[in-house]
């Protein structure tokens, strides 16, 4: 495979997406990394961008959205986390929303999304909702999802991410 330079740009509210970003960085040649960190214009000098985000209202967070507006003529790999789990179609819907923000001059090489743990105040909010409405099955599902998310992203998520990265690099 030919040599390439890359940047890893991420937005991480709770550390989940940063965890994935570090996994990518550790797996790729260190000497080829031109930038690693939160969205900054200097990352745009790389032809290959790994762009990570946390999910906010069914799409990427606003910092990532702003950065994506500045990206042109690059090869992109998207990755991120979502507090809510679901089936693959849920993750695909999020990725579709994010991809719509990307200028068509770019080439998306791949994407990966997995569940991420949520902060404790979210669980307390759900618990309060359940106290107010003890029979609410939707709130019970929210609590169950919160508990499932507690150990994500994990090693299995990182392995799946790195398989996707490997596939994407074959396209590069």
TrEMBL record:
<dbReference type="InterPro" id="IPR008254">
    <property type="entry name" value="Flavodoxin/NO_synth"/>
</dbReference>
<protein>
    <submittedName>
        <fullName>Flavodoxin family protein</fullName>
    </submittedName>
</protein>
<dbReference type="Pfam" id="PF12641">
    <property type="entry name" value="Flavodoxin_3"/>
</dbReference>
<feature type="domain" description="Flavodoxin-like">
    <location>
        <begin position="8"/>
        <end position="161"/>
    </location>
</feature>
<dbReference type="InterPro" id="IPR054633">
    <property type="entry name" value="BilS"/>
</dbReference>
<dbReference type="InterPro" id="IPR001226">
    <property type="entry name" value="Flavodoxin_CS"/>
</dbReference>
<dbReference type="InterPro" id="IPR029039">
    <property type="entry name" value="Flavoprotein-like_sf"/>
</dbReference>
């Amino acid at each position: 495979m030919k040599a390439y330079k890359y940047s890893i740009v991420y937005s991480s509210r709770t550390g989940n997406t940063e965890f994935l970003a570090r996994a990518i960085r550790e797996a790729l040649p260190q000497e080829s990394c031109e930038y690693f960190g939160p969205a900054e214009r200097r990352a745009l000098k790389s032809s290959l961008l790994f762009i990570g985000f946390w999910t906010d209202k069914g799409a990427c967070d606003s910092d990532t959205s702003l950065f994506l507006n500045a990206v042109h003529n690059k090869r992109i790999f998207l990755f991120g986390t979502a507090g809510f789990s679901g089936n693959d179609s849920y993750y695909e819907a999020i990725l579709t929303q994010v991809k719509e923000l990307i200028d068509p001059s770019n080439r998306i090489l791949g994407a990966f999304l997995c569940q991420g743990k949520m902060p404790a105040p979210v669980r307390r909010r759900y618990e309060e909702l359940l106290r107010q409405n003890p029979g609410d099955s939707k709130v019970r599902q929210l609590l169950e999802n919160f508990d499932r998310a507690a150990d994500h992203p994990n090693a299995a998520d990182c392995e799946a991410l790195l398989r996707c990265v490997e596939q994407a690099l074959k396209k590069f």
